[in-house]
Design goal:
Mean pLDDT: 95
Radius of gyration: 17 Å
Structural class: alpha/beta
Shape: globular
Strand content: 15-25%
Number of helices: 6
Distance between the termini: 44 Å
Largest sheet: 7 strands, parallel
Number of strands: 7
Order of helices and strands: EHEHEHEHEHEHE
Strand order of the largest sheet: 3-2-1-4-5-6-7
Low-confidence stretches: none
Amino acid sequence: MQNEAPLSHEIAIVTGGSRGIGLAIARSLGRLGARVALCATTAPAAERAASTLQAEGVSALGLAADVRDAASVGRFVAAVHAALGDATVLVNNAGVGIFHPAHEIEEADWDRVLDTNLKGAWLMSREVAPQMIRQKRGHIIHIASLAGKNTFAGGGAYCASKWGLRGLAGCMGEDLRGHGIRVSVVCPGTVHTQFSPHAGKDPSRMLQPADVAHVVEMLVLQSPQSFVSEVDLRPTQKP
């Protein structure tokens, strides 16, 4: 038993897990022994990511899900439950960014950002929380952003979604801590991914997806009598 992987008894769901930060988190949790279920907007993308992880020795399941849609989220969580059992770790990572002045952004783009980044995290958490409550344990981790604390021109929709996600995380933490469920939020700075081109910035100075995954590792490995509610993550040198 001394050589047992630390997360060998955990079932982890990672949204937006087919690339970038989500794939790095899924890989990290899987290498620690968790059975990982990841979702992406299309089945081929989710299945490719799962196959990549499986080739690395990770137990991974990849399925399509639209986190903005309650029915799609319900089907995804039910499929994960049927294949793996009750989830004990949920990482709400799925996110999009559309950047325009708040007075110019189209309603459809506003809805896409808020529904993906904020509503999606709520829908997935609402679906998974009852499983964790039954087990009297679990950990929900929201991947927010320093844009949830700092404003910038053109960031109205994105900043609103991430400020809201931090508020949701704090309230959920109070709602669920009595059930033995920990809720954390991670706020990274600029991360070098396909999410945004980050024109004019030096990729070598940016945070890497593995840096965010390392923080998630630390959170889930925290002793059960305590939890870290919020982490700010910055690159050592400004990009």
